Amino acid sequence: MTPAPPDHVVGRVSAVLRALSTRRDGASTSDLARSCGLARPTVHRLLSALAEEGYVDRDRHTGRWHLGPELYLLGEAAAPRYDVTQQARASVHRLAAATGESAFFSARRGDETICLLREDGDFPIRSFVLYEGARFPLGVVSAGLVVLAMLPDREAEAYLSTVDLAAEWGPAHRTAEIRARLARTRQDGYSTNPGLVVEGSWGMAAAVFTPSGEPGWALSLTGVESRFRPDRRPELGALLLKEAHSLTNLLRTGRTRPAIALG
């Protein structure tokens, strides 16, 4: 589903940079235009201007665009205020080591979750749905599901009334089915994604809360379906909840630099 194009320059620039951030191997001008719902000449003008400032870079051999060095420097400058990945890294490592699955840490940013950390366990078969920098709308993948479930009912319903996730992610993401998964997530305390994005690739997640009590992040596990048997899921859920609770407490008690959620 092509998004509605932003109606101002800052919005268009932001849309192009966000789209580019999801392309680990870079993207062509046409690819970015389709992703943003903008005309190709418009995107090319924006990219050319961004390249002059160092915000994007173009591979001279392939013609593909990549995020530029200036964004890296800006990110380094912003990290002390927003970054909690150093604190989350230990939890991600423990989850991967204890389960053998791939473990992740994702942040909420507006109506999306963004994967910030990944560590693979020792089980040889892995899922690659999630990777560092991957973005998904709330309600999609286990991280987006648990964050949406832990929002106040009014906020979650307001979001669901404005999106059509089924149009892009398939009939399993119809609003009624998402509501049912939200109810189950609230009951369990953790979310389960039974291969809804990629068949056979399962995921589970628990929310990490800001000091003010908002779901700002999520810890998750992904793997093949056979590793998420009904008898094992409660064990995985308990591990996720334990690490999410510990990380929430770490952020709340001030034993680390105060963090501000990205949402």
TrEMBL record:
Database matches in CDD domains: HTH_ARSR (cd00090)
Domain named IclR-ED: residues: 70-253
GO biological process: glycerol metabolic process; negative regulation of DNA-templated transcription
Coiled coil residues, start to end: none
Pfam families cross-referenced by the UniProt entry: HTH_IclR (PF09339), IclR_C (PF01614)
Domain of life: Bacteria
Record carries keyword DNA-binding: yes
Occurrences of domain HTH iclR-type (ranges): 7-69
Record-level Gene Ontology MF annotations: DNA binding; DNA-binding transcription factor activity
TM annotation in the entry: none
Matching Gene3D superfamilies: 3.30.450.40, Winged helix-like DNA-binding domain superfamily/Winged helix DNA-binding domain
Swiss-Prot/TrEMBL keywords: DNA-binding, Glycerol metabolism, Transcription, Transcription regulation
Purpose: May be an activator protein for the gylABX operon.
The name this protein goes by in its record: Glycerol operon regulatory protein
Source species: Amycolatopsis panacis
Source organism phylogeny: Bacteria, Bacillati, Actinomycetota, Actinomycetes, Pseudonocardiales
